[in-house]
Amino acid sequence: MSKPAATADLLPPATQTPCCPPMAAQRVEPATALQLAPAFKALGDPVRLQLMSMIASAPGGEICVCDLTPSFEVSGSTISHHLKTLRDAGLVDAERRASWVYYRARPGLMRQLATLLAPGDDES
Amino acid sequence: MSKPAATADLLPPATQTPCCPPMAAQRVEPATALQLAPAFKALGDPVRLQLMSMIASAPGGEICVCDLTPSFEVSGSTISHHLKTLRDAGLVDAERRASWVYYRARPGLMRQLATLLAPGDDES
DNA sequence: CGTCGGATTTGACGTTTGTCGAAACCGAGG
DNA sequence: CCTCGGTTTCGACAAACGTCAAATCCGACG
């Protein structure tokens, strides 16, 4: 409509952006912490962190589970479980095509996390 | 043990590491994941995320535990435990002065995390 | 159809985590 | 020296987590 405030435009359903100034510049409020902490937690496992990076850096923006699994020592079901965790956190998206499942990154949330971690703008 | 390892152990392992291009630009290697995942995990709790932000945004760069505790519903010992987690992760530093303990942020690691989450520069 | 292969779900397991209360620690003042 | 207030550590316990093997689901292809 007429409000030029680009911050809190739409707050429809689940994964909305109560977006976040850098935490070094302003205290994170409880509601934001409740929403963003699970995303950090999802990245707080070495396997998931690698999975996330493989998905985010995949050429073409997507990668097949069959290309993810052989890079790890853990079983396929464990990989699947970790992928579900990333999915539930809103960090990735999955699409089934034929017999294979492809994952792609959801840049929105990751951008929020990056902004939150960004150094305070008054830094020297 | 040939190392006088006491001081080296106290130093966060990632203060001046050269690593971490954005994970959207390049896959993060296992060793890096092993090193940085604990930091994400440490931020993966709502209380700790708020604690971290209160410390990082504290005027003067530091804040007393006595100013942190009353902002939460949980007990003082729980706050202390969370602060230890942040300390162990290398995200904050503590200094005792008189009867009070002051915490301050360690920007190094947080900057690495931010870089890792930064959007890939070759994205379209 | 029936079967095969990739992926997810289920059930079970040991481990880790978040929380509390109680106890211990540590400076400061009486 | 003894006490007091702020902080951390110690046990304890339920909940959540990471992992695996087995079962299940879901397209594809004989």
TrEMBL record, chains A, B:
Pfam families assigned to the protein according to its UniProt record, in alphabetical order: HTH_5
Domain (HTH arsR-type) ranges: 28-124
Keyword Magnesium: no
Domain of life: Bacteria
Keyword annotations: DNA-binding, Transcription, Transcription regulation
Claim: Transcription is one of the keywords in the record: yes
Protein name: ArsR/SmtB family transcription factor
